[in-house]
Amino acid sequence: MDLDVGQLAARTGVSVDTIRYYQSFGLLPPPARRGRRAFYSEEHVDRLERIRAMAARGFSLKAIRALLEAGDASESDRLLLAALAEQGTEPRYSRDELVERSGVPPEVMRAVERAGLAEAEAGPDGRPGYTDEDLRMARAATKLLEYGFPLRRLLAMAVRYDRAVRRLVDDSIELFDEHVRKAGDGDTEKVARAFRELLPVATALVAYHFQRRLVQRALKRLKRKGRRRELGRALKEASRARLRLEWR
């Protein structure tokens, strides 16, 4: 049965504006078109009912999109995908917008992309773009350059760090899969909740460990070189600027 957008809204209890928003967000497939008119099918009715059911369970639109795209994946995999989607950020920026907002020189951005350290990801509309997280990282990189760090050495360090982090992340996923997911006794929502809770904890631990090692090594180097005055100032600044973790 073909339905126009008004009939689809009446059939499902979802407003016309909401239906169009769902389409723009990638939750609904495009309607069939005959001339300038758009027609919806039972597939759209079913999809809207699924969206409403998932929204009633508390899933965000990003999580719902991930669940819909999961297809025939197991329930456990689907909920983990939803938990991952919750970590995504909106909106998305083109490279030019990212460069303008962050202040990073265009040639630096191109060098970062060539090194494989930044990559635009497809958004709901299928167009590639950068996220708010990318924007924050670009601003941080700009700050390092402002202090005179050479780009070539920064990129080389970033590539080494990225390789090490990828290995650590793979090991972490295996650990989670073995000791949390497989031990979840089929409680898929419990596993997804564990992922959401553990992700910020693991991220904070990595950040804290890096800062701690950085401060320790820097202070040790100053002490070894006998720079007492600089050492005293460094100790004071280190205690003031230490990362504060919030355990929840």
Share of residues in helices: 55-70%
The separation of the N and C termini measures 50 Å
**What is the global morphology?**
elongated
CATH architecture of the domain at 5-86: Orthogonal Bundle
Largest sheet: 2 strands, antiparallel
> Helical segment tally?
11
Number of DSSP-assigned strands = 4
Beta-strand percent range = under 5%
CATH-assigned fold name of the domain at 5-86: Multidrug-efflux Transporter Regulator, Chain: A, Domain 2
Radius of gyration (CA) equals 24 Å
Order of helices and strands: HHEEHHHHHEEHHHH
Q: Strands of the largest sheet, in order across it?
A: 1-2
Overall pLDDT metric: 81
Task: Find the structural class using helix and strand composition.
Answer: mainly alpha
Text of the CATH class of the domain at 5-86: Mainly Alpha
Q: Give the low-pLDDT segments.
A: none
What is the element layout, followed by pairings?
Elements: H1 5-12, H2 16-24, E1 32-34, E2 37-39, H3 42-56, H4 61-69, H5 75-86, H6 95-102, H7 106-114, E3 121-122, E4 128-129, H8 132-146, H9 151-181, H10 188-224, H11 228-241
Helix pairs in contact: 4-5, 5-10, 6-8, 10-11
Task: Describe it.
The protein is mainly α. The chain has a domain at 5-86: Multidrug-efflux Transporter Regulator, Chain: A, Domain 2, CATH 1.10.1660.10. Helix content is 67%, strand content 4%. It has helices spanning 5-12, 16-24, 42-56, 61-69, 75-86, 95-102, 106-114, 132-146, 151-181, 188-224, 228-241, and strands spanning 32-34, 37-39, 121-122, 128-129. The strands form 2 sheets. It has a two-stranded antiparallel sheet. It is elongated and about 85 Å long. The model has no long low-confidence stretch (mean pLDDT 81).
